[in-house]
Specification:
about 100 residues, about 50% helix, elongated
Length: about 100
């Protein structure tokens, strides 16, 4: 999130966040519980993020085919977790995700 904010061409005066407050950000933030159902901006950002994630995971599937990223697009399906436990994490696995399994 820090990187996304830093790369904006126009600095925002306010951030509408889906249920989180981003640490160490000096811009005023409004965390909105279930923000994607209450804010068209948050809903649109959520759709863009999900489409981008799917595209990235399909690309990563070509680099790390043993994980089945194209089939689960990065979500912790039972099959993906089984593979993860058998062969360990890839360089792209998030530490916050894999800590639940190791």
């Amino acid at each position: 999130m820090h990187q996304a904010i830093a790369n904006l061409s126009v600095a925002p005066e306010l951030l509408l966040n889906d249920a989180v407050t981003i640490p160490k950000v000096k811009i005023k933030q409004v965390p909105i519980i279930k923000g994607d159902t209450k804010s068209i901006s948050i809903a649109a950002a959520s759709i863009i993020a999900k489409v981008t994630r799917v595209r990235l995971m399909v690309a990563y599937d070509k680099i790390f085919p043993q994980y089945g990223f194209a089939a689960n697009t990065g979500y912790g399906s039972k099959e993906h977790i089984k593979i993860l436990k058998n062969i360990g994490p890839s360089p792209i696995h998030r530490a916050s995700f894999i800590k639940n399994f190791f």
